[in-house]
Write a structure and sequence with these properties.
The complex is a heterodimer of chains A (695) and B (563). Chain A has 695 residues and is α+β, with helices and mostly antiparallel strands. Chain A contains 16 helices and 26 strands. Chain B has a two-stranded antiparallel ribbon.
Chain lengths: 695, 563
């Protein structure tokens, strides 16, 4: 997953961000009060300061006497008001969108999970945020226009309670809607991506897997195609269970439903064998007695003649058998003449639902990434191979160049051995840049070394073949070959004791192929801890939407205190728009984008001037550029600084990419929302207090 | 019951009816391109979703409108198909169709930049739904997927996946638009992207690898039957489809008609070349027959009616001989007005040329000219050309009484000349003579012998380079005969590349046999033809026949045996 900006530690965020927040809020408050004071002076003359002072004292007193009971009552009122306006119709729209979604979504896409999750979360956020925008912006101005606000303000209720109540009420209704959408969306994603694969018994070929634990007879073959992909299934011949390989980020477990038929003189073996053609997932095996031994054999599909006769001790003796051309008669797992068939096993294979498609991987990312150049010097970036997107830096193969990720805080308890029996799991996603064709049918080779600066231990290089745009999994065994120092010989070492001592490690990556390049970014290599449930992660994704909703409601209610309905709607909409494109607006304001500022861009559009060439130095062009420099850019800059960056509140990309949303990130987002909501409510309260109807 | 509550009831009923109508609309309009494949047997049972999605998936199966549209051929209407999905998306934009397209195009560019391929594919899909009848969407994005996105991947299988995605995309576009440009692109991507990429060997293997079941085939269905599953033959089928459409009256767009007409035969030729490299049996037993068929197909190109946009009329390339004859007759008639004038004009021009250069120019039809001589001939040819206009001018100047007849002849000559020039231009565009000779040569017994002998030598070389000297010399001798018969092959890059590759191996074989490079190497002209051409002289600098030949390096060092 691409993460272009770092997620800081929570306390760092709180201390650094908190200080900045205090300064900005202080400045805004001071400027606001100053404006208010000046307006009082202008409107009331010498009485102005007194009126301003009383108003400010009232403002403080109202804040001090906030009643949770009254606030709750106002919130209930807002909730009911919204409900009566039939906001639940948004749910119907959402269901209709999901109903038609299969028209447009392709479960056979390269990353179907990302597509489905993105779609569901985008639809939910669009509808809920749109609704929040409308109800929050229209509520107060509509009440004022209809004079229904008088029924409220004439009651013993204070203005901050009215505002807070509305925010809570609208948040409540949004939460209910979002919850319903999340629930339905979850089932939509889960079921929409659910698929099986046909296991065609005729396509399975017997194989022997040799390992230290002994030989295992298996059946291996390609599964049927579903959603434009197929897997290779490996099934244990003895048990009928198995699993597929990993394709498009998921695998399937294979189970077999078996039925045993005793072989007697009346058993029509040929008929049972012929049945295999009628059901494609049906396989037939013989339990045979061969000498003293009883074993399971599989008559090949290519089998020709089979002649049996009743055997002495029960069962059927194979008198004659023609295995056909494609079968290997030397294999032990095929029936042979003189075998006695004891029973016949009818097996129907089936592949289960996809595993790993909807997941929440917990990644332990590095604290820092550095590069070593050919001279052995450390640098912040590697080589640029000329790509427009500079997310990744490159290192040249077969040179001392290396990328080094520095990890800290690795804890053995986060990587339970029962979950990772083969070793500590490192996930690697790399970009490959070839400066020559090389061997087209082979991937570029790279190696990884784990090193501990304190103990001086480093593991033997773990070589692997890269696969671009795919996350590769490397297991570093708990008992590894490692050395202490560059010239020392490799010996046995313990991973946690010697290499990861103190929870620190450096992961070094090098490319082995001459004149080929590997591209890496800070988040491309990470340790994989235990996975978490997808449902929980999905809920975290919706929590991100919820926080965006709260902020929009805050803006809507605040603007509603002094603007009429449509202006309030437009103001909230613009705040949200700037919030979602904060980075873009900031780039315009600081002239980092080609084409100049807002006015200059408009001028270029009218004149059809390309954005990359300098403008002709005409008087008009100069005027536009000056206006941008002295007026528009500073105004845009202030707006961006004052409004929340809503794009950082979403965590849908984590959910869609199958990564656990860090609680740290959610906590920071919550603080951010709180940091904006507080001044918004205070501002709204102060403005509302100034209006005659709230006095 | 109050009026207010009755009104409310009516609204509720209308809403329920509207909601109920959504279901049959969704069912009827489900697009045909997406197969809601469900695994049969027990494998599928585990994946059966029970809720809302189950309903939509179940309902999606029949795809009534899509099926009817295919059965009745609605999608082949001139305006193309109306896709319910596409119309719905357009409706959802609430009139902001233009901005939505702009945003999506920008997003697609962004996703490509940040290498987010699945999002790119999804965005492209949305663009095509918003602009299904905008041909450039299909052409641009199809090309983008097949050519630009595919090369971003390191694994050739992934590259192949994206190449086929692009082909499928273009094929999809043909359901909504009848436009020869899309068919051309499909043919071109299938034939040339797969058959001429760096990964051509791997791509062709993947292409030829048939799926176990027909429904698993990722390739688009072909309009014409093909002899076998091969990218060149599949590409050919698309090009033939274009010719069928032209014959049916559809106005071809995109390429010139002569290129469209020549591509099926070119694909056949490419198929034979590729297949001959991959399959020894094919080369030994079938290639000759295939080359013969390719020759016939190539010659048929000249029998097709081709639109000449210069003349604004249809022409037949086979008529080139007739036009040349007409032109010669008309020129003879012109010369007959004032006999000997053309020769006199030539002599006058020749008198102004340096005699040494003139001697070179007189050798212009001879083979083995030095580069310096070739340059002189190249420069003098236009200077010494006596064209009909010169003759006419001279006639009118000398015999004003013949002016009227001469003018009539001039008009006729210009007409014939234009026609001849147009036809010749078309023939040159497709390099007609070369490919005709190539097919003829490869189909001939001599050509077959040359190929087989070279193959035998190559096989010997792979076994043991030391034993390959004699077979190579035998093969080169046959090639000499072939090149003597078809002189244009000496300069040909394709044949030249092939022969030079084998010459390098021959060089290794000589080294292994401790034998020197023969002084009378029979294919020296092929090596010479591949030497760099001398630099073009600056204007005003006269090149003489005494200019030293350009410095030519030896053959590049031989590669290791087996390469």
């Amino acid at each position: 997953m691409v993460i272009e900006s770092d997620i800081p530690d929570f306390w760092t965020f709180l201390t650094e961000g908190g200080l900045r927040w205090l300064i900005v809020v202080g400045i805004v408050a001071a400027v606001g009060l100053l404006i208010s004071f000046i307006l009082s002076l202008v409107n009331h003359g010498p009485k102005g300061p007194g009126i301003f002072g009383r108003r400010f004292l009232d403002f403080l007193r109202d804040l001090g006497s906030l009643s949770p009971r009254r606030t709750w009552a106002m919130a209930s009122l807002a909730f009911m008001e919204a409900w009566r306006r039939r906001v639940w119709a948004v749910l119907l729209v959402f269901f209709a969108v999901l109903l038609f979604a299969p028209w447009f979504l392709r479960p056979d896409a390269k990353e179907p999970a990302r597509l489905y999750i993105d779609f569901v979360m985008f639809s939910s956020s669009l509808l809920v945020l749109g609704l929040s925008l409308v109800i929050s912006a229209f509520s107060m101005p509509a009440d004022i226009a209809n004079k229904t606000i008088h029924t409220v303000v004439t009651k013993p209720v204070r203005s901050p309670e009215i505002l807070l109540g509305r925010v809570l009420g609208f948040t409540g209704i949004g939460t209910v809607l979002l919850f319903c959408m999340g629930l339905v969306g979850y089932f939509f994603v889960d079921r929409g991506l659910g698929h099986g694969h046909e296991i065609v018994a005729a396509d399975l070929v017997p194989e022997t897997i040799r390992s230290q634990r002994g030989d295992t007879e298996v059946l291996r073959g390609k599964t049927g195609m579903t959603y434009k992909h197929a897997h290779v299934a490996t099934i244990n011949l003895a048990t009928g269970d198995g699993e597929t390989d990993l394709v498009q980020g998921h695998r399937h477990l294979i189970t077999a439903e078996s039925e045993s038929i005793e072989a007697t003189a009346s058993t029509n073996v040929q008929q049972l064998l012929d049945d295999r053609g009628k059901e494609r997932n049906l396989d037939v095996l013989f339990q045979v007695r061969r000498g003293e031994e009883t074993r399971l054999v599989r008559p090949p599909f290519s089998m020709g003649k089979l002649a049996t006769s009743p055997a002495g001790g029960g069962g059927l003796l194979i008198d004659e058998i023609d295995l056909g051309k494609s079968a290997d008669p030397r294999r032990e797992d095929v029936p042979k003449a003189r075998d006695v068939i004891v029973s016949i096993l009818r097996r129907r294979y089936s592949a289960g639902p996809p595993l790993g498609l909807l997941t929440a991987r917990v990644a332990h990312y590095a604290d820092a990434l550095g590069f070593r150049d050919k001279q052995g010097q450390m640098k912040a970036t590697g080589i640029s191979v000329g790509y427009e997107w500079e997310y990744r830096s490159y290192l040249e193969g077969a040179t001392p160049e290396a990328a080094l990720w520095k990890f800290t805080g690795l804890k053995a308890e986060d990587y339970p051995r029962d979950e990772f029996p083969d070793g500590l799991r490192i996930n690697v996603t790399l970009s490959v840049f070839r400066s020559h064709k090389g061997e087209i049918d082979k991937g570029v080779v790279a190696n990884i070394v784990l090193r501990n600066e304190k103990t001086g231990f480093e593991t033997e290089p773990i070589r692997f073949t890269t696969k671009e745009f795919e996350t590769l999994t490397l297991d570093v065994p708990y008992s590894v070959r490692a050395r202490r120092g560059a010239d020392a010989p490799y010996g046995d070492a313990e991973l946690w004791r010697d290499i990861l001592d103190g929870g620190d490690a450096i992961v070094q990556l090098q490319c082995d192929d001459v004149q080929q390049f590997l591209g890496v970014a800070k988040r491309d290599v990470y340790f994989l801890a235990s996975e978490k449930g997808f449902l929980q992660n999905f809920a975290k994704g919706y929590l991100g939407i919820w926080m965006q909703m709260v902020l929009i409601i805050g803006f809507g209610v605040m603007f509603g205190t002094f603007l009429n309905a449509f202006v309030s709607l437009m103001a909230t909409f613009c705040a949200a728009l700037v919030g979602y494109s904060a980075m873009f607006v900031l780039e315009i304001a600081t002239q980092r984008l080609p084409g100049g500022g807002a006015l200059e861009s408009a001028f270029r559009l009218l004149n059809r001037d390309p954005i990359t060439t300098p403008l002709n130095p005409s008087l008009t062009a100069k005027w536009f550029q000056s206006m941008d420099f002295f007026l528009f850019n500073p105004v845009l800059w202030v707006i961006v600084q004052a409004l929340p960056d809503l794009s950082v509140l979403g965590c849908g990309d984590f959910v869609a990419s199958g990564y656990d949303v860090p609680w740290n990130m959610l906590a920071q987002q919550a603080v951010r929302v709180l940091g904006f909501m507080l001044p918004l409510l205070l501002m709204g309260h102060y403005i509302f207090k100034g209006r005659e109807l709230a006095k | 019951m109050t009026h207010r509550s009755r009104s409310f009831q009516r609204k509720v009923i209308y809403l329920i009816l509207m909601a109920a109508l959504l279901l049959p609309i969704s069912w009827l309009g489900m697009p045909g391109e997406r197969k809601a494949k469900q695994p049969s047997g027990a494998a599928g049972q585990q994946a059966e979703p029970p809720l809302l999605t189950t309903l939509t998936h179940q309902l999606s199966r029949p795809r009534v409108l899509a099926r009817l549209q295919q059965e009745r051929g609605f999608s082949r209407a001139d305006l193309g198909d109306i896709d319910a999905g596409s119309e719905t998306v357009k409706l959802f934009t609430l009139g902001l169709h233009g901005p939505a397209c702009t945003i999506l195009w920008e997003r697609s560019r962004y996703y490509q930049k940040v290498e987010s391929w699945s999002k790119l594919a999804a965005t492209v899909d949305q663009i095509r739904k918003l602009q299904p009848h905008f041909i450039l969407v299909w052409r641009f994005q199809g090309w983008n997927l097949s050519y630009n996105v595919s090369v971003e991947w390191d694994d050739y299988k992934e590259r192949y996946y994206w190449v086929v995605e692009g082909i499928r995309f273009i094929d999809e576009g043909q359901k909504y638009n009848v436009d020869t440009r899309l068919i051309w692109d499909e043919g071109w991507f299938t034939a040339y992207k797969i058959g001429k990429s760096d990964e051509q060997r791997q791509f062709r293997v993947l292409f030829r690898d048939p799926p176990k079941r027909e429904e698993e085939d990722s390739l688009p269905k072909l309009p014409h039957a093909v002899a076998e599953r091969d990218n060149w033959l599949h590409g050919r089928a698309s090009f033939v489809e274009i010719l069928d459409l032209i014959d049916a009256g559809v106005t071809p767009r995109g390429q010139s008609q002569v290129i469209m007409a020549s591509e099926p035969a070119k694909c056949t030729i490419r198929y034979i070349s590729a297949k001959s490299e991959e399959d020894r049996d094919f080369l030994a037993n079938s290639a000759g027959v295939w080359w013969g068929d390719a020759l016939t197909e190539w010659e048929k190109v000249t029998q097709r009616k081709i639109r000449s946009y210069v003349l604004d009329e249809d022409v037949y390339l086979k008529d080139v001989a007739k036009y040349e004859d007409d032109r010669n007759q008309a020129a003879a008639k012109l010369d007959a007005l004032l006999p000997g004038k053309r020769e006199a004009l030539l002599q006058a021009k020749m008198s102004q040329i340096d005699p040494a250069e003139l001697k070179v120019w007189e050798k212009r039809d001879q083979p083995n000219l030095t580069p310096g001589e070739q340059q002189i001939i190249f420069r003098l040819t236009p200077l010494l050309a006596v064209n009909d206009a010169d003759v006419l001018q001279a006639i009118v100047a000398e015999r004003p009484d013949l002016r009227e007849r001469a003018d009539a002849m001039a008009v006729e000559l210009v007409r014939i000349e234009n026609r001849l020039s147009a036809v010749r231009h078309q023939l040159q565009t497709i390099n007609y003579d070369y490919w005709r000779d190539r097919c003829e040569a490869e189909a001939s017994e001599l050509g077959r012998e040359a190929r087989l002998k070279l193959l035998a030598a190559h096989d010997k070389y792979r076994q043991d380079p030391a034993t390959a000297k004699a077979p190579y010399e035998e093969a080169f001798a046959v090639w000499r005969k072939l090149l003597d018969k078809y002189k244009s092959f000496v300069q040909d890059g394709e044949i030249g590349d092939e022969l030079i590759r084998e010459m390098r191996r021959y060089e290794v074989a000589l080294e292994k046999s401790v034998a020197p490079w023969p002084n009378d190497f029979p294919l020296q002209d092929v090596i010479d033809a591949r030497k760099p051409f001398p630099p073009i002289p600056k204007t005003g600098v006269r090149t003489t026949i005494d200019s030293p030949p350009p410095a030519i390096g030896p053959l590049p060092p031989p590669r290791a045996p087996g390469t």
